[in-house]
Amino acid sequence: MAEVVLHELVKTYPGGTARATDEVSLEVADGEFMVLLGPSGCGKTTLLRMVAGLETPDSGQIVIGGRDVTYLEPRRRNLSMVFQSYAVFPNKKVADNIGFGLRVHGVPADEVRKKVEWAAELLQLTPYLDRYPAKLSGGQRQRVAVARAIVMDADVLLMDEPLSNLDALLRLSFRAELKKLVNEIGVTTLYVTHDQVEALSLGDRVAVMREGRIAQCGDPVAVYTEPADEFVGGFLGSPPMNFLTGTVSEDGTRIDFGGQTLPVPAALKTFQGKRLRLGIRPESISVEPASDGLRGDVQVFEPLGSSTLLTTELCGQVLKVQAPASFRAEPGQTLKLGLPPEQCRWYDPETQLLLE
Ligand code: ATP
């Protein structure tokens, strides 16, 4: 196992106008599960491919286990990889698929068998060792690809959207299995996904990327509850964080959203007379059928089974509210909205950055 240190990695593809990665620095601790999360095209795969040695950075440095590997060929980096297109060999039985890399490296047959059995046990593939991949489900085939990667005793495991070819149910069960497995073997892992739920569920830490840069890196709960900027707040969560624009009163005590007001934390008093953005998660807002206090007019009412989603309007601004499943409201109805101060995050409208 090993620590992975990325230092100011820059990559521009030939003919590309923008940098695919723009001075990305990241430290992944020994045994840590780091998720790279972000929208399509933000540079996640490029970053992973540079760590793997499949792309060379224009500048910057990659250090694995204290060794500078920036220009080292892939097979000398001691990494294992699982990619989206989990290519398993169709003409090889599961056991031969899992042991393939070991045999290529000249590991004695006895040891290969032991390791294959170990990985098959961990990934619940023991009953299928003698089958051909065509006789497996998508989830089982994916587990074969993961088993093949983990038997290699690599310092670092790299995974690029390994669950994306699975249907929603399989994805859910395999996600939990993967989490258990990686905890057990404790290998340093870099995992690319654009699925926020997967990222939050799997990562010891999550690095949210945007346009070639890391917008925020931290513990999943912290990234979700304290988004460092409006992009992160808007990217994470379904529905995403709400943002309301208002103007702070001249005495600095309240914010006015256009006729309705809320108190402003004392620390933001200096914004008197200026605009501020309030960020709040839909599930942090309480609703009751009353028309005093802060009011929202119901536009859309959507029962979602486990909760109810309300689209409300407050002074011409849209506010999504996730209410309990039993909550009932009619379009056109005015509701009292509760925005707990401890759940409110404040952003600078110019920089879109979180204000302390
Ligand atoms: P996705 O989730 O869609 O896979 P990503 O976040 O992994 O996206 P990358 O594949 O790293 O993003 O791409 C980053 C940027 O680099 C994009 O603008 C993309 O168009 C560009 N890019 C990626 N690969 C190449 C390539 N081989 N040649 C030219 N441009 C590329």
CATH T-level fold name of the largest domain = Rossmann fold
Instruction: List all distinct small molecules, including ions and cofactors, that are bound in this structure.
Output: adenosine-5'-triphosphate
Query: Per the principal axes of the C-alpha atoms, what is the gross shape?
Result: elongated
Count of the separate structural domains: 2
- Gyration radius, rounded: 25 Å
Distance between the termini: 37 Å
**How many strands, what sense, and barrel or not for the largest sheet?**
6 strands, mixed
Describe this structure in words.
It holds the Pfam family OB_MalK. It comes from Amycolatopsis thermalba. Helix 2 packs parallel to helix 4. The strands form 4 sheets. A 6-stranded mixed β-sheet has the order 6-7-8-3-9-10, with helices on both faces. The protein has 2 domains: 4-235, Rossmann fold (3-Layer(aba) Sandwich), CATH 3.40.50; 242-347, OB fold (Dihydrolipoamide Acetyltransferase, E2P), CATH 2.40.50. The mean pLDDT is 93. By secondary structure, it is of the alpha+beta class. The radius of gyration is 25 Å and the shape is elongated. The protein has 8 helices and 20 strands. Bound molecules: adenosine-5'-triphosphate. Adenosine-5'-triphosphate (ATP) is lined by residues 13, 16, 20, 38, 40-46, 194.
